[in-house]
Amino acid sequence: MPDSKSGSVTLSVNGSRVSVVAGATVAVAVAIAGQACRTSVSGEPRGPLCGMGICYECRVSINGMPHCRSCQILCQSGMDVRTDG
Ligand code: FES
Question: CATH number for the domain including 34?
């Protein structure tokens, strides 16, 4: 849901406040926050690859729910997004 009439949505990524245009995916918010979505078993930062819900490289935790595909979920005001989820 957009914040008032601004057309933007404000949420939290690893505790940092991020504003995105309404309709943006969580993957966009994570990128704007300068974060990787997760870390591979060898310690490499990972982010969106396919952008269509198949690869799961973009998974994060949203409001405590792990393994959410950030490329498939639209940002909502007040979301708490945590990477490495
Ligand atoms: S980028 Fe592949 S599932 Fe999200």
Answer: 3.10.20.440
